[in-house]
């Protein structure tokens, strides 16, 4: 099956009515915010989108997206390959939607005044959230070894607390 370019915007309600399925790609160069935190914009995001209704009659979008990006290791600064994967269920926030009835495993997404959802931005947000907070190689694969790392030591004075925190205020009020 040939991978085609995915739509940028989508009407989730109409797509659910049509039971639309999309299998395609986004180019990494089109994901500008993700490009700011990765080393290269070459590559693609493989995306699978299924629009349907759930048992409650809510329009839902089942999104699976995955890509491979290179980031900087926070320990050694070298290139680190990360596999990013997103698999979530989304439902649009409509005027008639009762948020209390939405299942906890669904993510509520906003649509614009025309009822359209920016699918590219949604997938980009989810990929950014799937990035590790501090990407780094495993210790045995990193250019910086454990013996090269140094840890600071505090002297005993740093561990002592003043007897009364208001003593500092007294000394400011009554200088000697």
UniProtKB/TrEMBL annotation:
Query: Which top-level group of life is the source organism from?
Result: Bacteria
Functional note: Plays a role in synthesis, processing and/or stability of 23S rRNA.
Q: Does the keyword DNA-binding apply?
A: no
Q: Which InterPro entries match?
A: YceD, YceD_bac
Q: What is this protein called?
A: Large ribosomal RNA subunit accumulation protein YceD
> What does the sequence similarity comment in the record state about its family?
Belongs to the DUF177 domain family.
Keywords of the record, alphabetical order, are: Ribosome biogenesis
């Amino acid at each position: 099956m040939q991978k085609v370019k995915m739509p940028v915007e989508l009407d989730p309600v109409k797509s659910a009515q049509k039971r639309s399925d999309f299998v395609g790609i986004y180019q990494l160069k089109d994901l500008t915010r993700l490009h700011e935190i990765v080393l290269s914009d070459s590559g693609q995001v493989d995306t699978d989108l299924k629009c349907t209704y759930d048992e409650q009659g809510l329009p839902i979008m089942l999104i699976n997206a995955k890509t491979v990006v290179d980031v900087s290791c926070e320990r050694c600064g070298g290139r680190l390959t990360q596999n990013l994967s997103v698999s979530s269920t989304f439902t649009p926030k409509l005027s008639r939607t009762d948020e209390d009835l939405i299942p906890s495993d669904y993510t509520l997404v906003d649509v614009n005044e025309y009822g359209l959802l920016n699918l590219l931005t949604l997938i980009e947000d989810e990929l950014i959230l799937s990035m590790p907070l501090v990407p780094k190689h495993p210790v045995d694969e990193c250019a910086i070894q454990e013996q090269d790392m140094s840890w600071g030591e505090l002297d005993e004075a740093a561990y002592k607390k003043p007897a009364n925190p208001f003593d500092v205020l007294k000394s400011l009020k009554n200088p000697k």
